[in-house]
Structure to design on (274 residues):
């Protein structure tokens, strides 16, 4: 852990992302007010002692909604990265082991998925299934599959040529056993780094989809949805947009710095450069 915290990017990213996670965890048990409770008398109020981040157009406490929105963002990040990892790693391992037409088919499939950005995929899925947070997670997760498939293939192709893999084959170990016991553990570092970075991208993507009305639906709190609702009242209460926007920037910056710090610490090439 000392080696990790000697890296400034990791330290700052760890602090920023930890605050987001702690705020989300606290909101599961306690928030200053009910995030969905309306009070017409308190509409569009600025920051005060009672409501540190002000209130929205329905008199709901902004701080409580920002805290609850952190839960949705973390859930989306975890689920989308899980979808991309689970499918992408398997496809990448298969592509690295089987050459020629199998590898070519998987890579062309990845190129096909890359041709449909997350927003377009979300529009397609939600037009069929309807807008919701689950469908948004599915859309972003599908977009992540080729990201992890390509990374897994590139790293695994190098590992398959190592001497200990040849020795394992000579010992009579099955190919899939070699893949799970020897290849996969040796490619975990780049996968963890990529997963952390994509986690930040997923938070930003979910906010964008919710802003367009394709993600989390009302009355559930979402940072992107809060920005969408705030644009109508910018002249009356600019605070409605400032705080969810800062929350998005805080979370994305934190997890990006955390991923950069992990890369700088775990990547042997970066260690040699230092």
């Amino acid at each position: 852990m000392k080696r990790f915290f000697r890296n400034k990017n990791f330290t700052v990213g760890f602090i920023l992302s930890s605050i987001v996670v702690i705020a989300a965890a606290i909101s599961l048990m306690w928030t200053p007010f009910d995030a969905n409770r309306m009070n017409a008398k308190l509409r569009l109020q600025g920051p005060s002692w009672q409501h540190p981040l002000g209130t929205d157009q329905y008199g709901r406490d902004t701080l409580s909604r920002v805290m609850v929105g952190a839960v949705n963002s973390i859930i989306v990040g975890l689920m989308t990265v899980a979808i991309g990892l689970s499918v992408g790693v398997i496809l990448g391992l298969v592509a690295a082991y089987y050459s020629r037409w199998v590898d070519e088919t998987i890579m062309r499939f990845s190129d096909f998925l890359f041709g449909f950005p997350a927003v377009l995929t979300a529009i397609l899925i939600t037009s069929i299934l309807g807008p919701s947070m689950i469908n948004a997670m599915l859309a972003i997760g599908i977009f992540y599959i080729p990201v992890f498939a390509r990374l897994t293939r590139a790293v695994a192709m190098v590992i398959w040529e190592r001497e200990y893999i040849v020795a394992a084959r000579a010992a009579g170990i099955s190919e899939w056993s070699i893949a799970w016991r020897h290849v996969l553990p040796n490619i975990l570092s780049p996968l963890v780094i990529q997963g952390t970075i994509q986690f930040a991208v997923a938070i930003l993507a979910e906010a964008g989809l919710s802003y367009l009305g394709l993600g989390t639906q009302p009355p559930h709190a979402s940072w992107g949805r809060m920005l969408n609702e705030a644009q109508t009242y910018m002249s009356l209460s600019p605070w409605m947009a400032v705080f969810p926007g800062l929350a998005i920037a805080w979370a994305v910056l934190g997890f990006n710095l955390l991923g950069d710090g992990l890369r700088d610490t775990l990547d042997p090439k970066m260690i040699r450069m230092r």
Observations:
- The chain has one domain: 12-36+62-273.
